[in-house]
């Protein structure tokens, strides 16, 4: 079952639109799916649907709802890519983490207080790391998160498991930044990094030219095992 829902914001004054995909039976846990800069588009909805097929309750909040409600862009269409980059400039990342926290609370309420994980891509990969450091999320996964090397000062606050997928040829994350990520996180007891030689940003996208099938499958297998271990 899929539907659009409204999640109360942390201050309770407004509601956050979100896409929900529910499994056929009782959810094994819940997972918050954190969007790229393209909004809750077909790819993100498909990520939710796949998680629901695996038995999870999946919820993807529309993080651009305050200034671009309902936006769903295609990265393979040049004008839509340009718009996505523009929207990123308007986005308050700290506010986005608060909206993710509100979504975590909503997810827990729907599974009787069970475990909740997070998974994010691109911008969402960065936000998944921030969520791990700033909330009580039970497990977090980030795919090709941008700028994580600038967030390493928050790593000491991470109390629950984190998995990061790092494409070595990411044109948004230079090799020096990747090296800083490893230097700052390889010794962290809760954080695991996997590198993907030859892969670029967006290699695990559901649709379009960015997808690299073999590496996407490998990363998703690792993610599935990670969530099975830490969420159930």
Question: Describe it for me?
Answer:
This protein is α/β, with parallel strands linked by helices. It has one domain (2-230): Alpha/Beta hydrolase fold, catalytic domain (Rossmann fold, 3-Layer(aba) Sandwich). It is 36% helix and 20% strand. The protein is built from six helices and eight strands; from the N terminus they run βββαβααβαββαβα. The protein has an eight-stranded mixed sheet with strand order 1-2-4-3-5-6-7-8, with helices on both faces. Strand 5 (116-121), helix 4 and strand 6 (139-143) form a beta-alpha-beta unit. Helix 3 packs across helix 4 (123-134). The chain is globular and about 40 Å long. The two termini are 21 Å apart.
Write the layout of secondary structure elements.
Layout: E1 2-8, E2 15-21, E3 30-34, H1 42-53, E4 57-61, H2 78-90, H3 93-110, E5 116-121, H4 123-134, E6 139-143, E7 162-167, H5 175-185, E8 191-196, H6 213-230
Parallel strand pairs: 3-4, 3-5, 5-6, 6-7, 7-8
Antiparallel strand pairs: 1-2, 2-4
CATH A-level architecture: 3-Layer(aba) Sandwich
- Kindly report the CATH topology: Rossmann fold
So what's the CATH class? Alpha Beta
Secondary structure tally, helices: 6
- Distance N to C terminus: 21 Å
Strand element count: 8
Count of domains: 1
Report low-confidence residues grouped into runs of 5 or more: none
Please state the structural category: alpha/beta
**Morphology call:** globular
Alpha carbon gyration radius: 16 Å
Largest sheet: 8 strands, mixed
């Amino acid at each position: 079952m899929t539907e659009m829902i409204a999640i109360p914001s942390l201050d309770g004054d407004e509601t956050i639109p979100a896409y929900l995909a529910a499994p056929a039976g009782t959810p094994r846990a819940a997972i918050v799916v954190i969007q790229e800069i393209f909004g809750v588009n077909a790819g993100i909805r498909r990520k939710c649907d796949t998680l629901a097929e695996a038995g999870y309750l999946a919820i993807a909040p529309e993080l651009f709802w305050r200034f671009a409600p309902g936006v769903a862009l295609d990265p393979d269409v040049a004008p839509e890519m340009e718009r996505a980059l523009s929207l990123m400039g308007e986005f308050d990342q700290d506010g986005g983490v608060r909206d993710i926290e509100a979504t975590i609370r909503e997810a827990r309420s729907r599974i009787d207080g069970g475990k909740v994980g997070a998974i994010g891509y691109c911008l969402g990969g960065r936000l998944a790391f921030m969520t791990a450091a700033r909330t009580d999320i039970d497990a977090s996964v980030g795919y090709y998160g941008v700028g994580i090397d600038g967030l390493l000062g928050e790593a000491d606050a991470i109390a629950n498991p984190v998995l990061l997928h790092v494409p070595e040829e990411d044109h948004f994350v230079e090799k020096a930044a990747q090296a800083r990520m490893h230097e700052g996180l390889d010794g962290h007891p809760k954080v695991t990094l996997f590198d993907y030689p030859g892969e670029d940003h967006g290699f695990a996208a559901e649709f379009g030219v960015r997808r690299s099938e073999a590496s996407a499958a490998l990363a998703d297998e690792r993610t599935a095992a990670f969530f099975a271990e830490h969420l159930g």
